[in-house]
Protein backbone atom coordinates (compact mmCIF):
# COMPACT_ATOMS: atom_id res chain seq x y z
CA UNK A 1 0.00 0.00 0.00
CA UNK A 2 2.91 2.34 0.34
CA UNK A 3 1.49 3.10 0.43
CA UNK A 4 3.50 5.27 2.59
CA UNK A 5 3.17 7.87 -0.10
CA UNK A 6 3.04 10.53 2.59
CA UNK A 7 6.83 10.45 2.44
CA UNK A 8 6.62 11.34 -1.23
CA UNK A 9 6.69 14.88 -2.52
CA UNK A 10 9.40 16.14 -0.20
CA UNK A 11 11.95 16.27 -3.01
CA UNK A 12 10.62 19.58 -4.27
CA UNK A 13 10.91 21.29 -0.88
CA UNK A 14 13.72 23.60 0.15
CA UNK A 15 16.74 21.61 1.26
CA UNK A 16 18.84 21.69 4.37
CA UNK A 17 22.45 20.63 4.18
CA UNK A 18 22.98 17.25 5.80
CA UNK A 19 25.03 17.17 8.97
CA UNK A 20 24.05 20.65 10.22
CA UNK A 21 22.32 19.40 13.38
CA UNK A 22 24.07 18.35 16.53
CA UNK A 23 23.76 14.89 18.02
CA UNK A 24 21.08 14.03 20.59
CA UNK A 25 21.40 13.44 24.37
CA UNK A 26 23.22 10.13 23.95
CA UNK A 27 26.85 10.55 24.92
CA UNK A 28 29.36 10.47 22.09
CA UNK A 29 30.73 7.10 23.12
CA UNK A 30 27.22 5.64 23.32
CA UNK A 31 26.44 6.91 19.83
CA UNK A 32 29.64 5.33 18.55
CA UNK A 33 28.74 2.03 20.19
CA UNK A 34 25.26 2.03 18.68
CA UNK A 35 26.43 2.96 15.19
CA UNK A 36 29.29 0.44 15.30
CA UNK A 37 26.72 -2.27 15.93
CA UNK A 38 24.84 -1.64 12.67
CA UNK A 39 26.05 -4.30 10.26
CA UNK A 40 25.79 -2.67 6.83
CA UNK A 41 26.81 -5.88 5.09
CA UNK A 42 23.93 -7.72 6.74
CA UNK A 43 21.52 -5.04 5.62
CA UNK A 44 22.73 -5.63 2.08
CA UNK A 45 22.73 -9.43 2.06
CA UNK A 46 19.42 -9.84 3.89
CA UNK A 47 17.78 -7.11 1.82
CA UNK A 48 18.88 -8.69 -1.44
CA UNK A 49 17.80 -12.14 -0.34
CA UNK A 50 14.28 -10.95 0.47
CA UNK A 51 14.24 -9.00 -2.81
CA UNK A 52 14.89 -12.27 -4.63
CA UNK A 53 12.18 -14.11 -2.67
CA UNK A 54 9.57 -11.49 -3.73
CA UNK A 55 6.76 -13.03 -1.64
CA UNK A 56 3.39 -11.28 -1.48
CA UNK A 57 1.22 -10.68 1.60
CA UNK A 58 0.82 -13.62 3.99
CA UNK A 59 2.95 -15.75 1.66
CA UNK A 60 6.32 -14.50 2.98
CA UNK A 61 7.54 -17.78 4.48
CA UNK A 62 11.19 -17.44 3.37
CA UNK A 63 11.38 -13.72 4.15
CA UNK A 64 9.93 -14.03 7.64
CA UNK A 65 12.08 -17.08 8.42
CA UNK A 66 15.26 -15.26 7.37
CA UNK A 67 14.57 -12.21 9.53
CA UNK A 68 13.51 -14.36 12.47
CA UNK A 69 16.73 -16.38 12.20
CA UNK A 70 18.84 -13.21 12.21
CA UNK A 71 17.15 -12.12 15.43
CA UNK A 72 17.30 -15.52 17.07
CA UNK A 73 20.99 -15.86 16.26
CA UNK A 74 21.51 -12.43 17.86
CA UNK A 75 19.91 -13.55 21.13
CA UNK A 76 16.29 -12.43 20.74
CA UNK A 77 13.47 -14.70 21.84
CA UNK A 78 11.33 -15.25 18.76
CA UNK A 79 7.72 -16.42 18.50
CA UNK A 80 6.46 -17.25 15.02
CA UNK A 81 2.89 -17.17 13.78
CA UNK A 82 1.46 -14.60 16.19
CA UNK A 83 -2.18 -13.35 15.96
CA UNK A 84 -3.11 -16.07 13.50
CA UNK A 85 -0.66 -14.89 10.83
CA UNK A 86 1.75 -17.70 9.89
CA UNK A 87 4.36 -15.28 8.54
CA UNK A 88 4.20 -12.85 11.45
CA UNK A 89 6.60 -12.98 14.38
CA UNK A 90 7.45 -11.24 17.63
CA UNK A 91 11.07 -11.03 18.78
CA UNK A 92 12.03 -9.69 22.18
CA UNK A 93 15.14 -8.84 24.17
CA UNK A 94 14.71 -7.72 27.77
CA UNK A 95 17.45 -6.29 29.96
CA UNK A 96 15.60 -5.66 33.21
CA UNK A 97 12.76 -3.26 33.96
CA UNK A 98 12.56 -0.20 31.76
CA UNK A 99 10.80 1.26 28.72
CA UNK A 100 9.35 -1.17 26.18
CA UNK A 101 10.12 0.04 22.65
CA UNK A 102 8.88 -1.66 19.51
CA UNK A 103 10.17 -1.52 15.95
CA UNK A 104 8.33 -2.95 12.96
CA UNK A 105 9.75 -4.96 10.08
CA UNK A 106 7.87 -5.47 6.79
CA UNK A 107 8.82 -7.85 3.98
CA UNK A 108 5.92 -8.34 1.56
CA UNK A 109 6.28 -7.77 -2.18
CA UNK A 110 3.75 -6.49 -4.71
CA UNK A 111 2.07 -8.48 -7.49
CA UNK A 112 3.22 -7.95 -11.05
CA UNK A 113 6.37 -5.91 -10.44
CA UNK A 114 9.18 -8.37 -11.13
CA UNK A 115 12.07 -6.35 -12.55
CA UNK A 116 15.79 -6.78 -13.06
CA UNK A 117 18.22 -4.34 -11.43
CA UNK A 118 18.60 -2.28 -14.58
CA UNK A 119 17.34 1.28 -15.31
CA UNK A 120 15.00 0.27 -18.13
CA UNK A 121 11.88 -1.85 -17.85
CA UNK A 122 13.13 -5.44 -17.98
CA UNK A 123 10.95 -8.10 -16.33
CA UNK A 124 12.44 -11.22 -14.77
CA UNK A 125 11.46 -14.29 -16.79
CA UNK A 126 9.34 -16.69 -14.81
CA UNK A 127 8.79 -14.30 -11.90
CA UNK A 128 5.61 -12.33 -11.29
CA UNK A 129 6.18 -10.31 -8.15
CA UNK A 130 8.61 -7.62 -7.07
CA UNK A 131 9.55 -5.28 -4.24
CA UNK A 132 8.18 -2.10 -5.82
CA UNK A 133 7.72 -0.65 -2.33
CA UNK A 134 11.12 -1.70 -1.02
CA UNK A 135 9.90 -3.79 1.89
CA UNK A 136 12.88 -6.10 1.39
CA UNK A 137 15.00 -3.19 2.62
CA UNK A 138 12.53 -2.23 5.32
CA UNK A 139 12.71 -5.52 7.18
CA UNK A 140 16.45 -5.87 6.76
CA UNK A 141 17.24 -2.40 8.11
CA UNK A 142 14.83 -2.62 11.05
CA UNK A 143 16.27 -5.95 12.18
CA UNK A 144 19.85 -4.69 11.85
CA UNK A 145 18.98 -1.64 13.95
CA UNK A 146 17.40 -3.76 16.67
CA UNK A 147 20.43 -6.06 16.84
CA UNK A 148 22.76 -3.06 17.16
CA UNK A 149 20.72 -1.57 20.00
CA UNK A 150 20.63 -4.90 21.84
CA UNK A 151 24.43 -5.00 21.75
CA UNK A 152 24.58 -1.48 23.16
CA UNK A 153 22.03 -2.28 25.89
CA UNK A 154 24.22 -5.15 27.06
CA UNK A 155 27.47 -3.19 26.89
CA UNK A 156 26.02 -0.14 28.63
CA UNK A 157 23.82 -2.10 31.07
CA UNK A 158 20.84 -0.03 29.94
CA UNK A 159 17.55 -1.49 31.23
CA UNK A 160 14.50 -1.91 29.05
CA UNK A 161 12.87 -4.17 26.52
CA UNK A 162 13.30 -4.07 22.76
CA UNK A 163 10.74 -5.78 20.54
CA UNK A 164 10.80 -6.43 16.83
CA UNK A 165 7.40 -6.99 15.24
CA UNK A 166 7.62 -9.01 12.03
CA UNK A 167 4.62 -7.63 10.17
CA UNK A 168 3.43 -9.31 6.95
CA UNK A 169 0.92 -8.15 4.37
CA UNK A 170 1.24 -4.37 4.76
CA UNK A 171 0.19 -4.05 1.14
CA UNK A 172 -3.55 -4.31 1.63
CA UNK A 173 -3.64 -7.15 4.15
CA UNK A 174 -3.52 -4.95 7.29
CA UNK A 175 -1.13 -7.32 9.06
CA UNK A 176 -0.32 -4.91 11.91
CA UNK A 177 -3.96 -4.16 12.63
CA UNK A 178 -4.52 -7.67 14.00
CA UNK A 179 -1.53 -7.17 16.29
CA UNK A 180 -3.01 -3.95 17.64
CA UNK A 181 -6.53 -5.38 17.90
CA UNK A 182 -5.33 -8.50 19.70
CA UNK A 183 -3.24 -6.61 22.27
CA UNK A 184 0.36 -7.11 21.16
CA UNK A 185 1.06 -3.39 21.70
CA UNK A 186 -0.87 -2.90 24.96
CA UNK A 187 2.30 -2.66 27.09
CA UNK A 188 4.53 -0.89 24.56
CA UNK A 189 5.74 2.62 25.45
CA UNK A 190 6.69 3.80 21.94
CA UNK A 191 7.03 2.43 18.42
CA UNK A 192 9.47 3.18 15.62
CA UNK A 193 9.23 2.50 11.89
CA UNK A 194 10.67 3.61 8.58
CA UNK A 195 9.87 3.33 4.91
CA UNK A 196 11.84 3.40 1.66
CA UNK A 197 11.38 6.68 -0.18
CA UNK A 198 12.86 9.03 -2.74
CA UNK A 199 14.21 11.49 -0.17
CA UNK A 200 15.67 11.59 3.34
CA UNK A 201 13.11 12.97 5.76
CA UNK A 202 11.90 12.56 9.33
CA UNK A 203 8.94 14.86 8.78
CA UNK A 204 5.81 13.46 10.40
CA UNK A 205 2.53 13.44 8.52
CA UNK A 206 -0.99 12.15 8.58
CA UNK A 207 -1.97 9.48 6.08
CA UNK A 208 -5.20 8.16 4.61
CA UNK A 209 -7.44 5.83 6.53
CA UNK A 210 -8.42 2.95 4.28
CA UNK A 211 -10.95 0.18 4.21
CA UNK A 212 -11.02 -2.42 1.47
CA UNK A 213 -12.81 -5.58 0.51
CA UNK A 214 -14.00 -7.89 -2.23
CA UNK A 215 -17.52 -7.92 -3.66
CA UNK A 216 -18.42 -11.31 -5.12
CA UNK A 217 -21.43 -11.84 -7.34
CA UNK A 218 -23.04 -15.20 -8.13
CA UNK A 219 -25.33 -15.60 -11.13
CA UNK A 220 -26.30 -18.31 -13.57
CA UNK A 221 -24.34 -19.35 -16.63
CA UNK A 222 -25.83 -20.04 -20.03
CA UNK A 223 -24.96 -19.87 -23.73
CA UNK A 224 -24.57 -16.15 -24.42
CA UNK A 225 -26.11 -16.49 -27.90
CA UNK A 226 -28.18 -19.69 -27.89
CA UNK A 227 -30.23 -18.99 -24.74
CA UNK A 228 -29.09 -15.76 -23.09
CA UNK A 229 -32.46 -15.38 -21.35
CA UNK A 230 -31.52 -18.26 -19.04
CA UNK A 231 -28.37 -16.51 -17.82
CA UNK A 232 -27.89 -14.08 -14.97
CA UNK A 233 -24.57 -12.33 -15.46
CA UNK A 234 -22.38 -11.79 -12.42
CA UNK A 235 -20.18 -9.57 -14.58
CA UNK A 236 -23.15 -7.34 -15.39
CA UNK A 237 -23.64 -6.91 -11.65
CA UNK A 238 -20.00 -5.87 -11.20
CA UNK A 239 -20.28 -3.35 -14.04
CA UNK A 240 -23.52 -1.88 -12.72
CA UNK A 241 -21.98 -1.60 -9.25
CA UNK A 242 -18.99 0.22 -10.68
CA UNK A 243 -21.21 2.66 -12.58
CA UNK A 244 -23.26 3.36 -9.46
CA UNK A 245 -20.11 3.88 -7.40
CA UNK A 246 -18.65 6.24 -9.97
CA UNK A 247 -21.78 8.39 -9.73
CA UNK A 248 -21.35 8.32 -5.97
CA UNK A 249 -18.00 10.14 -6.24
CA UNK A 250 -19.81 13.49 -6.61
CA UNK A 251 -21.50 13.04 -3.25
CA UNK A 252 -18.72 12.10 -0.84
CA UNK A 253 -16.59 14.36 1.39
CA UNK A 254 -13.56 16.09 -0.09
CA UNK A 255 -10.32 14.05 -0.16
CA UNK A 256 -12.24 10.76 -0.37
CA UNK A 257 -10.60 8.29 -2.75
CA UNK A 258 -12.31 5.23 -4.24
CA UNK A 259 -10.37 2.68 -6.32
CA UNK A 260 -11.35 -0.70 -7.71
CA UNK A 261 -10.13 -3.49 -9.95
CA UNK A 262 -12.14 -6.34 -11.44
CA UNK A 263 -10.31 -9.43 -10.23
CA UNK A 264 -12.58 -12.00 -11.91
CA UNK A 265 -14.94 -11.38 -14.81
CA UNK A 266 -15.57 -14.65 -16.58
CA UNK A 267 -13.61 -16.87 -18.90
CA UNK A 268 -15.20 -16.66 -22.37
CA UNK A 269 -17.43 -14.09 -24.11
CA UNK A 270 -19.91 -16.73 -25.26
CA UNK A 271 -20.59 -17.92 -21.71
CA UNK A 272 -22.68 -15.75 -19.38
CA UNK A 273 -20.41 -15.46 -16.29
CA UNK A 274 -21.96 -17.00 -13.21
CA UNK A 275 -19.22 -15.54 -10.99
CA UNK A 276 -17.43 -12.20 -10.87
CA UNK A 277 -15.43 -10.31 -8.27
CA UNK A 278 -14.43 -6.67 -7.82
CA UNK A 279 -11.91 -5.45 -5.22
CA UNK A 280 -12.56 -1.98 -3.73
CA UNK A 281 -10.54 0.48 -1.65
CA UNK A 282 -12.03 3.55 0.06
CA UNK A 283 -9.70 6.15 1.59
CA UNK A 284 -10.03 9.39 3.52
CA UNK A 285 -8.00 11.24 6.17
CA UNK A 286 -10.96 10.57 8.50
CA UNK A 287 -11.58 6.93 9.56
CA UNK A 288 -15.27 7.68 10.12
CA UNK A 289 -15.67 8.89 6.53
CA UNK A 290 -14.06 5.65 5.36
CA UNK A 291 -16.63 3.63 7.29
CA UNK A 292 -19.60 5.59 5.96
CA UNK A 293 -18.50 5.71 2.32
CA UNK A 294 -17.77 1.97 2.20
CA UNK A 295 -21.28 1.39 3.54
CA UNK A 296 -22.63 3.39 0.59
CA UNK A 297 -20.43 1.50 -1.87
CA UNK A 298 -21.86 -1.71 -0.41
CA UNK A 299 -25.38 -0.43 -1.12
CA UNK A 300 -24.35 0.09 -4.73
CA UNK A 301 -23.37 -3.57 -4.84
CA UNK A 302 -26.63 -4.64 -3.27
CA UNK A 303 -28.56 -2.61 -5.83
CA UNK A 304 -26.57 -4.15 -8.66
CA UNK A 305 -27.40 -7.62 -7.39
CA UNK A 306 -31.11 -6.77 -7.33
CA UNK A 307 -30.96 -5.32 -10.83
CA UNK A 308 -29.30 -8.42 -12.28
CA UNK A 309 -31.02 -11.06 -10.16
CA UNK A 310 -27.67 -12.23 -8.81
CA UNK A 311 -26.44 -12.79 -5.28
CA UNK A 312 -23.76 -10.61 -3.69
CA UNK A 313 -21.32 -11.35 -0.87
CA UNK A 314 -18.87 -8.89 0.65
CA UNK A 315 -15.63 -9.86 2.38
CA UNK A 316 -13.82 -7.21 4.38
CA UNK A 317 -10.13 -7.67 3.57
CA UNK A 318 -8.34 -4.83 5.30
CA UNK A 319 -8.85 -1.58 7.14
CA UNK A 320 -6.42 0.93 8.63
CA UNK A 321 -6.61 4.23 10.47
CA UNK A 322 -4.96 7.46 9.40
CA UNK A 323 -1.56 8.22 10.91
CA UNK A 324 -1.44 10.15 14.18
CA UNK A 325 1.82 12.16 14.04
CA UNK A 326 3.97 12.64 17.13
CA UNK A 327 6.12 15.76 17.13
CA UNK A 328 7.97 14.85 20.33
CA UNK A 329 9.40 11.69 18.82
CA UNK A 330 9.63 13.25 15.37
CA UNK A 331 12.13 15.81 16.62
CA UNK A 332 14.25 13.05 18.14
CA UNK A 333 14.24 11.12 14.85
CA UNK A 334 14.99 14.23 12.79
CA UNK A 335 17.90 15.20 15.02
CA UNK A 336 19.46 11.77 14.61
CA UNK A 337 18.92 11.66 10.86
CA UNK A 338 20.38 15.13 10.48
CA UNK A 339 23.46 14.22 12.54
CA UNK A 340 24.19 11.42 10.05
CA UNK A 341 23.52 13.41 6.89
CA UNK A 342 22.46 12.34 3.44
CA UNK A 343 23.67 9.72 0.96
CA UNK A 344 26.63 9.80 -1.42
CA UNK A 345 26.07 8.08 -4.77
CA UNK A 346 28.89 6.95 -7.02
CA UNK A 347 29.21 8.12 -10.63
CA UNK A 348 27.78 4.76 -11.72
CA UNK A 349 24.77 5.10 -9.43
CA UNK A 350 24.11 8.63 -10.67
CA UNK A 351 24.25 7.39 -14.26
CA UNK A 352 21.82 4.59 -13.36
CA UNK A 353 19.46 7.13 -11.81
CA UNK A 354 19.71 9.54 -14.75
CA UNK A 355 18.87 6.78 -17.21
CA UNK A 356 15.93 5.64 -15.11
CA UNK A 357 14.53 9.17 -14.83
CA UNK A 358 14.17 9.18 -18.61
CA UNK A 359 11.26 6.76 -18.13
CA UNK A 360 9.32 9.47 -16.24
CA UNK A 361 9.71 12.70 -18.28
CA UNK A 362 8.00 14.87 -15.64
CA UNK A 363 9.90 13.40 -12.68
CA UNK A 364 10.13 15.74 -9.72
CA UNK A 365 13.18 16.35 -7.58
CA UNK A 366 16.82 15.96 -8.51
CA UNK A 367 19.43 13.25 -8.23
CA UNK A 368 21.48 15.60 -6.04
CA UNK A 369 18.71 15.74 -3.41
CA UNK A 370 19.68 12.33 -1.98
CA UNK A 371 22.73 13.99 -0.42
CA UNK A 372 20.45 16.26 1.60
CA UNK A 373 18.05 15.91 4.52
CA UNK A 374 14.67 17.51 3.94
CA UNK A 375 13.20 20.10 6.32
CA UNK A 376 11.41 18.85 9.39
CA UNK A 377 7.70 19.49 9.79
CA UNK A 378 4.56 17.98 11.26
CA UNK A 379 1.87 17.86 8.58
CA UNK A 380 -1.71 17.51 9.80
CA UNK A 381 -3.58 19.20 6.97
CA UNK A 382 -5.77 16.69 5.06
CA UNK A 383 -3.99 17.64 1.83
CA UNK A 384 -0.80 16.13 3.27
CA UNK A 385 -2.37 12.67 3.32
CA UNK A 386 -1.39 10.51 0.38
CA UNK A 387 -1.31 6.76 0.87
CA UNK A 388 -2.25 4.41 3.66
CA UNK A 389 -0.41 2.10 6.04
CA UNK A 390 -1.32 -0.34 8.77
CA UNK A 391 1.37 1.38 10.87
CA UNK A 392 -1.28 4.03 11.48
CA UNK A 393 -3.29 1.84 13.83
CA UNK A 394 -0.26 1.52 16.09
CA UNK A 395 0.04 5.32 16.21
CA UNK A 396 -3.40 5.63 17.86
CA UNK A 397 -2.49 3.34 20.78
CA UNK A 398 1.28 3.91 21.14
CA UNK A 399 3.36 7.06 20.44
CA UNK A 400 4.84 6.35 17.02
CA UNK A 401 7.56 7.88 14.87
CA UNK A 402 8.92 7.11 11.41
CA UNK A 403 11.23 8.31 8.69
CA UNK A 404 11.94 7.80 5.03
CA UNK A 405 15.33 7.52 3.34
CA UNK A 406 16.33 7.71 -0.31
CA UNK A 407 16.31 4.09 -1.39
CA UNK A 408 14.63 4.97 -4.70
CA UNK A 409 15.58 7.31 -7.53
CA UNK A 410 13.94 10.69 -6.81
CA UNK A 411 10.80 11.34 -8.81
CA UNK A 412 9.95 7.70 -9.55
CA UNK A 413 6.36 6.66 -8.88
CA UNK A 414 5.50 4.45 -5.96
CA UNK A 415 4.72 0.79 -6.61
CA UNK A 416 6.69 0.74 -9.83
CA UNK A 417 9.24 -1.34 -11.71
CA UNK A 418 11.64 1.54 -11.21
CA UNK A 419 11.48 1.16 -7.45
CA UNK A 420 11.81 -2.62 -7.68
CA UNK A 421 15.07 -2.16 -9.61
CA UNK A 422 16.51 0.36 -7.14
CA UNK A 423 15.49 -1.74 -4.13
CA UNK A 424 17.56 -4.65 -5.41
CA UNK A 425 20.84 -2.82 -5.94
CA UNK A 426 23.29 -0.48 -4.24
CA UNK A 427 21.05 2.60 -4.37
CA UNK A 428 18.50 0.82 -2.21
CA UNK A 429 21.12 -0.62 0.12
CA UNK A 430 22.69 2.77 0.85
CA UNK A 431 19.32 4.25 1.79
CA UNK A 432 18.53 1.25 3.98
CA UNK A 433 21.85 1.54 5.84
CA UNK A 434 21.15 5.21 6.57
CA UNK A 435 17.70 4.23 7.83
CA UNK A 436 19.13 1.47 10.03
CA UNK A 437 21.68 3.81 11.60
CA UNK A 438 19.03 6.48 12.25
CA UNK A 439 16.62 3.93 13.70
CA UNK A 440 19.31 2.51 15.98
CA UNK A 441 20.19 5.93 17.41
CA UNK A 442 16.53 6.77 17.91
CA UNK A 443 15.72 3.46 19.60
CA UNK A 444 18.67 3.86 21.96
CA UNK A 445 17.71 7.42 22.81
CA UNK A 446 14.13 6.41 23.57
CA UNK A 447 15.17 3.54 25.80
CA UNK A 448 17.52 5.88 27.69
CA UNK A 449 14.98 8.74 27.98
CA UNK A 450 11.79 7.88 29.91
CA UNK A 451 10.94 11.59 30.14
CA UNK A 452 10.78 11.83 26.34
CA UNK A 453 8.43 8.85 26.25
CA UNK A 454 6.18 10.46 28.87
CA UNK A 455 5.96 13.67 26.83
CA UNK A 456 5.23 11.69 23.67
CA UNK A 457 2.40 9.82 25.41
CA UNK A 458 0.84 13.05 26.60
CA UNK A 459 0.99 14.43 23.05
CA UNK A 460 -0.65 11.31 21.63
CA UNK A 461 -3.47 11.46 24.15
CA UNK A 462 -4.10 15.12 23.36
CA UNK A 463 -4.16 14.55 19.60
CA UNK A 464 -6.57 11.63 19.71
CA UNK A 465 -8.94 13.29 22.20
CA UNK A 466 -10.23 12.33 25.66
CA UNK A 467 -13.06 10.10 24.44
CA UNK A 468 -11.07 8.03 21.96
CA UNK A 469 -11.59 4.29 21.98
CA UNK A 470 -9.76 2.14 19.45
CA UNK A 471 -12.03 -0.06 17.33
CA UNK A 472 -10.32 -1.80 14.42
CA UNK A 473 -11.75 -1.09 10.96
CA UNK A 474 -11.35 -4.79 10.13
CA UNK A 475 -13.88 -5.72 12.80
CA UNK A 476 -13.60 -9.19 14.31
CA UNK A 477 -12.56 -11.11 11.23
CA UNK A 478 -9.51 -13.37 11.18
CA UNK A 479 -6.54 -12.36 8.99
CA UNK A 480 -7.40 -12.63 5.28
CA UNK A 481 -4.57 -15.04 4.53
CA UNK A 482 -5.71 -15.64 0.96
CA UNK A 483 -6.48 -12.03 0.02
CA UNK A 484 -4.04 -12.15 -2.89
CA UNK A 485 -6.05 -14.96 -4.44
CA UNK A 486 -9.08 -14.39 -6.68
CA UNK A 487 -10.49 -17.88 -6.22
CA UNK A 488 -14.20 -18.45 -6.18
CA UNK A 489 -15.84 -18.59 -2.76
CA UNK A 490 -19.21 -20.34 -2.47
Automatic annotation (TrEMBL):
Keywords: Hydrolase, Signal. GO terms for molecular function: dipeptidase activity; para-aminobenzoyl-glutamate hydrolase activity. InterPro entries: Amidohydrolase, Aminobenzoyl-glu_utiliz_pB, Bact_exopeptidase_dim_dom, Peptidase_M20, Peptidase_M20/M20A_hydrolases, Peptidase_M20_dimer. Its EC number is 3.5.1.-. Residues 212-299 form the Peptidase M20 dimerisation domain. GO terms for biological process: folic acid catabolic process. The keyword Signal applies. Pfam families: M20_dimer, Peptidase_M20. Residues 1-23 form the signal peptide. This is p-aminobenzoyl-glutamate hydrolase subunit B. It comes from Sphingomonas mucosissima. The lineage of its organism: Bacteria, Pseudomonadati, Pseudomonadota, Alphaproteobacteria, Sphingomonadales. The gene is abgB_1.
